[in-house]
Amino acid sequence: MSESTKILVKIGNIELGEFPILLAPMEDVSDPPFRAVCKDYGADLMYTEFISSEGLIRDAAKSVQKLDIFEYERPIGIQIFGSEAGPMSEAAGIASAAGPDLIDINYGCPVKQVACKGAGAALLRDIPKMVEITSAVIQSTHLPVTVKTRLGWDDQTKNVIEVAERLQDIGVQALTIHGRTRVQMYKGEADWSLIAGIKNNPRMKIPVFGNGDVDTAEKAALYRNRYGVDGIMIGRASIGYPWIFNEIKHFLRTGTHLPAPGIEERVEVCRKHFRRSLMWKGPVLGILEMRRHYSQYFKSLPSFKEYRSRLVNTMSDEEIEQILEEVMDAYASSI
User: Fold this and answer.
1) 126 FRET partner, CA 20 to 30 A, in 109, 168, 188, 296?
2) DSSP letters along 133-159, please?
3) Are 271 and 159 found together in one domain?
4) Pick from 286, 290, 292, 299: which is nearest to 327 by CA?
5) What φ, ψ does residue 79 adopt, rounded to 5°?
6) Which residues contact 106 (CB under 8 A, 6 or more apart)?
């Protein structure tokens, strides 16, 4: 197929390329420092952490801070969640004013704090209410509205095909589907067969992205070919490994693997992530919230436990920089 005849994936007027690889919205993970390194390594579309509609309309500091987006991140979506149409409509207006490229609605979060309050994946048990909320959001913003959801609440109620059709009918411009039910949480193997059923449904005209269990370039190629989705969203596999976006894109394009990052590159990207964390969150939160990432950046290193212990038990940015330098020197000949 020539360059001129390739089909490009679009959400509204946002062009995402032939087969985009998306960064999933992950609470306490996909903040601006993390998004920056993922963008550097090939993420085509990214989302904020999910933001409570109630928090936004009440001007809660934590919710408002999550609206921070930067020009180099584009295209980027702000993801919101809530259980009622009124607050979600108002929150969509607030989020739109922050200047994202799209608004995404979370109908997939399985955690009790969200689902037991009637938001996130809980809406899969009340499709009419989901439609009502989605319509209210669409009417309150000039931006494209997309949705992230799951297969259903449990194995007996896998209703995502109906969900997809009804959301498209009211104006949703793209869907991302995680291949598990709410009851599954993140356990077991993701089932992409229903995702493929939605993509292959002749009624469906909007992009359909698959999510769940893609953690290698080979698996991304297999799922693209087997299930026919328009793109793939990467979540947990990107934590501590932002290289996965470019690795997938290179493999899809050439059938060959990029070299794995060496220790110098791992340390450099971890250091960049850390410094951005300090800049965005300040010297206390920036250090504390970076602690969850060290094991992921260096998880394949033998005997890393001692370094990790030192990294998570200091509040000195200078000491952290020094420890990272020691890590690079210690493993320089082993990777």
Assistant:
1) 188
2) HHHHHHHT-SS-EEEEEES-SSTT---
3) no
4) 299
5) -100, 130
6) 25, 50, 79, 80, 81, 114, 119, 120, 148
Q: How far apart are CA 289 and CA 26, in angstroms?
A: 14
The angle subtended at Cα 121 by Cα 119 and Cα 126, nearest 5°, is 75
**End residue of a domain, out of 196, 230, 254:** 254
Element counts in the chain: helices (H) and strands (E): 14, 11
- 5 has pLDDT over 90: no
Q: Is the pLDDT of residue 231 over 80?
A: yes
pLDDT at 299 over 90: no
Q: Note the pTM of the prediction, 2 decimals.
A: 0.93
Contact 289, 28 (CB under 8 A): yes
For the chain, the residue count is 335
**256: how many CB neighbours lie within 10 A of its CB?**
8
Residue 109 appears among annotated catalytic residues: yes
> Do 206 and 308 fall within a single domain?
no
Residues 58 and 268 sit within 8 Å (Cβ to Cβ)? no
**Residues 174/146, Cβ–Cβ less than 8 Å:** yes
d(C-alpha 208, C-alpha 198), whole Å:
8
> Catalytic one among 38, 109, 116, 270?
109
Same domain for 162 and 36: yes
Domain range spanning residue 311? 263-331
Per-residue pLDDT band at 335 (split at 50, 70, 90): low
Tell me the β-bridge partners of 21.
232
Exposure pattern of 20-32 as b/e (b: 16+ CB <10 Å)?
A: bbbbbbbbebbbb
Residues 200 and 309 occupy one common structural domain: no
Q: Answer whether 42's CB lies under 8 Å from 19's CB.
A: no
First vs last Cα of the chain: how many Å apart?
A: 39
Spatial separation of the C-alpha atoms in residues 244 and 43, rounded to whole Å: 9
